[in-house]
Design a protein that fits this description.
Number of strands of chain B: 2
Shape of chain A: globular
Order of helices and strands of chain B: HEEHHHHHHHHHHHH
Largest sheet of chain B: 2 strands, antiparallel
Subcellular location (chain A): Cell inner membrane
Membrane topology (chain A): Peripheral membrane protein
Strand order of the largest sheet of chain A: 6-7-8-3-9-10
Helix content of chain B: over 70%
CATH class of the largest domain in chain A: Alpha Beta
Oligomer: heterodimer
Distance between the termini of chain B: 25 Å
Distance between the termini of chain A: 40 Å
Protein name (chain A): Sorbitol ABC transporter ATP-binding protein /mannitol ABC transporter ATP-binding protein
Largest interface: A-B, 25 and 19 residues
Strand content of chain A: 25-35%
CATH superfamily of the largest domain in chain A: P-loop containing nucleotide triphosphate hydrolases
Largest sheet of chain A: 6 strands, mixed
Order of helices and strands of chain A: EEEHEEEHHHEHEHEEHHEHEEEEEEE
CATH topology of the largest domain in chain A: Rossmann fold
Main location (chain A): membrane
Shape of chain B: flat
Radius of gyration of chain B: 24 Å
Pfam family, one (chain A): TOBE_2
CATH architecture of the largest domain in chain A: 3-Layer(aba) Sandwich
């Protein structure tokens, strides 16, 4: 079991309010990703749940029990740190076994569990190596091994993939997701990378300035962003925002259209006219950065190759069903 | 530095410095070896004559030699033990966030900047003096007899003084090492359920292995040649109780005016220092490997 509930959790460092009241319900077995820009408080929120920081106010419930006064080790959670935080003088075996050893578990059982964890993570050949003799990905797996061997109620991941190169990151992303599904343990995962968030999460928490902006499944966030911030943060390339007369016609202060929902037509009629300023040809996609005069710079995404070059005139036709409308305060307007 | 020209240039430019250092080392060494083979007494000028290894035989069979060798080793070992055993907890304390910490740190470091002669004098006359010293006064407060440190426990008194001087050094090195300990490692240990003591034993102490090695190596180099503290406080006495190798050589040369024997002693000291260094590097040096 690993159901985690936050009730009005607050955290201040002196006069600085980092977390301004967070309410959240994390169901047992779900994979929840905290995502947000640097300094939004996502790591702090994770550390509050872990018990590495004390809450200033509110309650954290794990399986219905308030744990704000419970020391980290007694909360039954385990954490994978950004720097991995492996113990450098211990072998892989020692690293994975440390938590069990501290819990005073019998030697045979420790060995059995360590070996099982190592097998799950393909670490068996490396059990007697020191962390410095391992590659980045292997270290990462040792850190995960240290977390799973304790059979926690939930895993806490603090940007665990940010030190890996791009190819390895994609691979580890898959491994972590698969492992979590296989173990069925609740996981909370902090990242600033919205691609990681979208691909791994059952549910995403978008944080900004210490507040939860939206909590929902990846596609919910993509299709029905609650406000301008979420709309701009989720999705790559970013959503285009247009203000002024065009927005007023739609009864909104700002309207947003995702690049993939702009139809590109060469010298076409209707829509928004502009000049291509940069064209990025990826083969699978073509990204166009279009100077659209009064509407400002717009980004358009075309699936497949489109033979357009800087200076070409295009018109961009937004998909009317996919236009997001936002009011004065940035909140979404739902028809 | 790949091409031959740059290698040649580098060697040419380094030559004067290397040559100077070499001369600086080789001239005194050659002279010492030369003097060590002479009968050369300052009280008997003009009588210098070649005596072969006679000076070495004289120095090594002198009962004072074994006594002073033992004193040297006891002194080095004790000071190392005291500075490290006290230095680790002190460094741990100084690593905490406390108000006024910068001043406390400065005060802790201060003894290291006091000249050895000065600190020895202060200890001898203000602290350990059996009549007017602070320790005697404290002993009187408790109705105890004053300890005459330099008569009753002379070597221990010298060890205390030198430990007081070197404790800041050990503390400082260990403190900087503690500050480089990854905070996330401590947090990981906390998440793993390690108590403060377990964290210290399994995380902090292994992390300190390398700086402790550095402290041992550097302190040994300097402690083998301690002289000023002994000269100022006990003059090697009573008897030979606080005479170490360095002081013995001094007394051969400038108390007995026997330059030949002192030179032989100097060479013996060089060999001894190398033996100690060899074993030290064998025992603790592997901690330095990355």
């Amino acid at each position: 079991m690993g159901q985690i509930t936050l009730q009005g959790v607050q955290k201040s460092f002196g006069p600085v309010h980092i977390i301004k009241g967070a309410d959240l319900d994390i169901a047992d077995g779900s994979f929840v990703v905290f995502v947000g820009p640097s300094g939004c408080g996502k790591t702090t929120l994770l550390r509050l749940i872990a018990g590495l920081e004390d809450v200033t106010g509110g309650a954290i419930l794990i399986d219905g029990r308030n744990v704000v006064d419970v020391p980290p080790a007694k909360r039954g959670l385990s954490m994978v740190f950004q720097s991995y935080a492996l113990y450098p003088h211990m072998s892989v075996r020692g690293n994975i076994a440390f938590g069990l050893k501290m819990a005073g578990i019998a030697k045979d059982e420790i060995n059995r569990k360590v070996e099982a964890a190592a097998a799950t993570l393909n670490l068996t050949p490396y059990l007697d190596r020191k962390p410095r003799e391992l590659s980045g990905g292997q270290r990462q797996r040792v850190a995960i091994g240290r977390a799973i061997v304790r059979e926690p109620k939930a895993f806490l991941f603090d940007e665990p993939l940010s030190n890996l190169d791009a190819a390895l990151r994609v691979q580890m992303r898959l491994e972590v997701t698969r492992l979590q599904k296989q173990l069925g343990t609740t996981a909370i995962y902090v990242t600033h990378d919205q691609v990681e968030a979208m691909t791994m999460a059952d549910k995403i928490v978008v944080l900004n300035g210490g507040k939860i902006e939206q909590y929902g499944s990846p596609l919910e966030l993509y299709e029905k962003p609650a406000n301008l911030f979420v709309a701009g943060f989720i999705g790559s390339p970013k959503m285009n925002f247009v203000t002024g007369e065009l927005a007023k016609q739609q009864g909104a202060t700002t309207i947003g259209v995702r690049p993939e929902h702009l139809k590109v037509e060469r010298d076409g009629q209707g829509g928004w006219h502009g000049t291509v300023s940069v064209a990025e040809h990826l083969g699978s996609d073509t990204f166009l950065y279009v100077d659209a005069g009064p509407q400002g710079m717009l980004t358009a995404r075309y699936i497949g190759e489109l033979d357009l070059h800087p200076g070409d005139k295009v018109s961009l036709i937004p998909d009317p069903a996919r236009i997001h409308r936002f009011d004065d305060s940035g909140k979404s307007i739902h028809a | 530095m790949a091409t031959q020209q740059t290698q040649l240039l580098a060697r040419t430019l380094l030559t004067p410095a290397v040559a100077l250092l070499f001369i600086w080392m080789i001239v005194p060494l050659a002279l010492t070896i030369y003097f060590a083979t002479l009968h050369y007494n300052l009280l008997d000028p003009g009588s210098e004559s070649f005596v072969g290894l006679e000076n070495f035989r004289y120095f090594l069979t002198d009962p004072a030699f074994l006594a002073s060798l033992q004193n040297t080793l006891v002194l080095v070992g004790s000071v190392l033990a005291i500075t490290i055993i006290l230095g680790v907890p002190l460094a741990l304390l100084l690593d905490q966030q406390v108000v006024g910490l910068s001043i406390v740190r400065l005060m802790v470091i201060a003894p290291f900047f006091v000249m050895p002669t000065v600190s020895a004098l202060v200890w001898k006359n203000l602290l350990m003096h059996p009549v007017s010293g602070l320790f005697a006064w404290i002993a009187h407060l408790f109705g105890l007899p004053a300890i005459d440190w330099f008569n009753d426990a002379p070597l221990f008194a010298v060890i205390l003084i030198i430990s007081w001087q070197w404790l800041p050094f050990a503390t400082l090195i260990l403190l900087t090492a503690l500050q480089s300990l990854d905070e996330e490692q401590k947090e990981a240990a906390e998440m793993d359920g390690a108590s403060a003591i377990s964290t210290f034993i399994y995380i902090t102490l292994p992390h300190l292995a390398r700086p402790i090695t550095v402290v041992i190596l550097i302190e040994t180099i300097f402690l083998l040649t301690v002289f000023a503290e002994i000269f100022v406080t006990t003059g090697g006495g009573p008897g030979l109780q606080t005479t170490n190798i360095a002081f013995l050589i001094y007394s051969q040369a400038l108390i007995q005016y026997d330059v030949g024997s002192a030179s032989a002693g100097g060479l013996v000291a060089v060999v001894l220092a190398n033996i100690v260094a060899f074993f030290l590097v064998r025992i603790v040096g592997r901690n330095l490997e990355a």
